[in-house]
From TrEMBL:
Bilayer-crossing regions: 549-572
Pfam families: C2_ITFG1, FG-GAP_3
Annotated localization: Membrane
Membrane topology: Single-pass type I membrane protein
Protein name, entry field: Integrin alpha FG-GAP repeat containing 1
GO CC list: plasma membrane
Domain T-cell immunomodulatory protein TIP C2: residue ranges: 441-542
Predominant place of localization: membrane
InterPro entries found in the cross-reference section: C2_TIP, FG-GAP, Integrin_alpha_N, Tip
Family: Belongs to the TIP family.
Signal peptide (UniProt feature, chain positions): 1-23
Keywords: Glycoprotein, Membrane, Signal, Transmembrane, Transmembrane helix
Length: 594
């Protein structure tokens, strides 16, 4: 009978464990309290405490920075940029935190537009001891035709501002440097670029030389690749053909198939009304578009993408939610036969049809995520490591009928399969122990670094994964200031971890360093100081204990308690036997005396 009960409990434990592995938990109240409204615009460690903060736009004219805290609510509004600072009728369109003047303190770049104007204004608010100098803001003396791309154009590890400033052809690109808070404009590329608006330009390593290249989306729609050769951008002669579709979304770059190269993924609509959607992918060095998601049917219902608009284009947001080493995605879909919009998780799984055979991987929509489905009228969804434990959680924005601002929902990822990860954040390396005003060198949101690992999994097979840090900045790309690379269930040491940063013009040596035997479930903060001496780069390692450590501790404590109980019982029995023997001796003595 007891064996039967034990089997029932084992079955229930297995069932609950399997269910909990994919469960989501709504933790909105714990994170924001009653402040869960606005548009999540960016992430960054503003307070330089190794905790990621959230930048939220409210009323399209106000920015609120929510700083991470150790007490509920875990994110509290602390820094505020009010609408009184901006020109009248200005609408905030994007937020890009970064260290633009090179003082190792986080500044905030805001882009705004004014009604009836197609040009984009750029404001910089300078960081000052974990706050902002609101009175000393800088407005760039040139406007852009669209939101600029924040990148490190000259390889000095100080973010620069890249885009098109001309409104009439020929349209040449310019880059603005803000070192020491002085504007310096230069012509960027050698030929004119008819930039698409909204664009999805990227600053990402496309040929695995650990130096970030430049990817541009142009009218056509077409794509241009400018490879960094010795720190100078050179246009590739082979251009990527446009896919056979009607509507094109925002380009994204991830290592989709785990080969160490960045792949180009593109959400599209196959017809003009976006009744049929698809996601195409082109591998690095290839010109063939391969569909990795075509099936949008759930029972009798057909779902598809929400047609993009200039303020919120059609885009995917990537993150490895199950830590298997293959990036998954979050996307908002609409019911083509109704009016409902929901956020869905796209899981990266092995290919099971002929259309994606050349890639070996595909997306599969997880329809039965009840917590995601409970959020009606979803507008945007992205990944975010809420508790800084290496497991990517989710933030979903929805539109309420009676409210102007979006509603923010936070969902904790209770993935309990005990998969492993490595979390890497590359800093600017402008200083290490001698930062000006004794500031901490954290929280600078550095675009351009490239991270890749190679290791051996539990089956003895070679495993790769790679990612670029902050490769895109415009149109709510919502990229995190760090990279989380899943290792699967292999608890082995990470064999090789490579980190590379952009090079300065004319520099022939690749700026790259390798670390070996990295402990799984660790966070690595890389300080590339000095930039041109990779051997001198340092890294700080922070460990995040996995569930197996907790279970091992519980098992060890349980064994110790069990042994103590046995010792106690044996001791009690021995004492009882001694007492009985003493009574017998006493009885024998009295009998002899008689």
């Amino acid at each position: 009978m007891w064996m039967f009960k034990l089997n029932i409990w084992a079955f229930l434990w297995l069932f609950v464990g399997q269910y909990g592995a994919f469960a989501l938990q709504d933790v909105t109240a714990d994170l924001f309290g009653a402040e869960n409204y606005g548009t999540v615009a960016a992430f960054g460690d503003f307070y330089a405490d190794k905790q990621t903060d959230i930048f939220i736009i409210r009323g399209q004219s106000e920015l609120v920075i929510f700083l991470a805290d150790s007490k509920i609510p875990y994110f509290k509004p602390k820094v505020n940029i009010t609408k009184d600072i901006f020109p009248r009728d200005a609408v905030i369109t994007s937020v890009v935190p970064g260290d633009y003047d090179g003082d190792s303190q986080m500044d905030v770049l805001l882009t705004t537009t004014i009604q009836n104007s197609k040009m984009t204004n750029v404001f910089i608010f300078w960081g000052n001891n974990q706050t902002l100098d609101l009175s000393g803001k800088l407005m760039l003396n040139k406007n852009f035709t669209d939101q600029p791309l924040v990148m490190d154009f000259n390889g000095d590890m100080i973010p620069d501002i890249f885009g098109v400033t001309d409104s009439v052809p020929p349209l040449f690109t310019e880059v603005c440097y803000l070192t020491k808070r002085v504007q310096r404009w230069e012509k960027a590329l050698s030929s004119s670029v008819d930039m698409r608006s909204p664009h999805s330009n990227a600053f990402i390593d496309l040929n695995r030389d650990f130096t970030a290249d430049l990817f541009l989306t142009t009218e056509g729609p077409k794509f241009e690749t400018w490879i960094s050769k010795d720190g100078n951008f050179t246009k590739e002669e082979v251009t990527l053909a446009e896919p056979p579709v009607k509507i094109i979304g925002q380009s994204s770059f991830v290592d989709f198939d785990g080969d160490g190269y960045q792949d180009h993924l593109l959400p599209v609509c196959l017809d003009a009304t976006c009744q049929r959607g698809a996601i195409y992918m082109v591998k690095s060095g290839s010109a063939e578009w391969v569909p990795v998601l075509l099936d949008f049917q759930r029972r009798e219902t057909i779902w598809s993408f929400v047609p993009g608009k200039p303020s919120q284009p059609l885009a995917l947001h990537f993150g490895d939610y199950n830590l298997d080493g293959f990036p998954d995605a979050l996307v908002v879909l609409r019911n083509t036969s109704g009016s409902g919009q929901q956020a869905f998780l796209l899981e990266n799984v092995p290919c099971n049809n002929a259309s994606c055979h050349g890639v070996g991987r595909m997306f599969q929509i997880l329809w039965d995520q009840s917590d995601l489905g409970a959020i009606q009228n979803a507008v945007m969804a992205t990944f975010f490591d809420i508790y800084e434990d290496g497991i990517l959680d989710m933030l979903v924005l929805s539109q309420a009928e009676d409210k102007h601002d979006l509603i923010i929902h936070a969902l904790k990822n209770n993935y309990e399969a005990d998969a492993y990860f490595v979390k890497v954040m590359v800093l600017s390396g402008l200083c290490f122990n001698d930062c000006p005003e004794d500031v901490k060198p954290f929280g600078v949101n550095q675009p351009g670094p490239y991270v890749m690992y190679t290791t051996t999994d539990s089956n003895g097979n070679l495993k790769n994964a790679s990612a670029g840090q902050l490769s895109q900045s415009a149109h709510f790309s919502l990229q995190l200031p760090y990279t989380v690379l899943g290792l699967g269930r292999s608890a082995n040491f990470l064999d090789h971890l490579f980190v590379g940063i952009p090079r300065q013009p004319g520099e022939t040596e690749i700026r790259k360093k390798e670390w070996t035997a990295i402990i799984p479930n660790s966070q690595l903060i890389v300080i590339p100081f000095p930039h041109n001496q990779p051997r001198s780069w340092s890294a700080k390692l922070y460990l995040t204990p996995s569930n197996s450590v907790l279970l091992t501790a519980i098992a060890l404590i349980g064994v110790c308690v069990f042994i103590l109980v046995i010792i106690g019982i044996l001791h009690w029995q021995e004492k009882k036997a001694d007492d009985r023997e003493k009574r017998q001796e006493a009885h024998r003595f009295h009998f002899d005396a008689m």
